[in-house]
């Protein structure tokens, strides 16, 4: 019975960690700012902490925003329909 249990565990672990079809999440890769689908960059913060503060100000105003770590540094990303609103909110928050 113990060997059957160990055999089953081996089969499950081999399936879970198989190359190309693993159910374990891969490490996220950074890309250029234009590789984020329909999201468009609205702000270029100096560091991740500043970016999170800006993102929170957008979320608090009701705008869906993401903070992405791109190859060019952190970027605040929003949907194209929210771009003008997000720019206005960030302008008020910084000024």
From TrEMBL:
Protein name: Unannotated protein
């Amino acid at each position: 019975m113990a060997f059957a249990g160990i055999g089953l565990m081996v089969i499950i672990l081999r399936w879970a960690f198989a190359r190309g079809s693993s159910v374990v999440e891969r490490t996220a890769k950074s890309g250029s700012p234009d590789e984020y689908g329909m999201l468009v960059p609205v702000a270029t913060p100096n560091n991740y902490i500043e970016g999170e503060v800006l993102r929170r100000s957008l979320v608090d105003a009701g705008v869906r925003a993401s903070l992405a770590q791109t190859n060019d540094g952190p970027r605040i990303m929003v949907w194209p329909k929210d771009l003008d609103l997000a720019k206005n909110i960030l302008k008020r928050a910084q000024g």
